[in-house]
Amino acid sequence: MDKKELRTEALARRSRSAEAAGPKAALLIARRLLGDFVFMKGAIIAGYAAIGAEADPFPLMATLGAQGHPLCLPRVEDKDLTFRSWKPGEPLIPGPMNVPQPAASAKERRPDLLIVPLLAFDNDGYRLGYGAGYYDRYLSEHRHKRTIRAIGIAYAGQHVERLPHEPHDEPLDAVVTEERVWRFERN
Fold it and tell me: Per residue in 168-178, pLDDT tens?
């Protein structure tokens, strides 16, 4: 199967997984992530505005924001991913593919932790995204300059044994589902 076919299958699988996980999945994911990870004081956390059946990071982000962590969301600018300040309740504007994003006037941030959306993930920490490569490019550029972690959040049903990946694909450090935490070793 090529990646286009995989994405079609993964979208359907994610929808079924979201339905099976139920409406409390976002809270279960948030609880599991908060219980399994230590957050450096003042760490800047980047999330995303969920679209479709994506696992929703907003309950997690609301808790982290209340704990004093600066929050930000991705913004696509000239085909590059940047991160802009955001607080729960602040308005978002439609971006490419109608993904909600902060306004260009919001302060740019350099996150320490990325909460990453995905269509599917595998045993080695590779994720299947939508194909634009925004997160892979961002991680490739920034991981060699500073410590930055990427944690995917997903439904348990989005796990597959193996995904095809290319040299430019950046693996995640972990994936958190409503059922468990997957940690991955990176070289």
Answer: 999 999 999 99
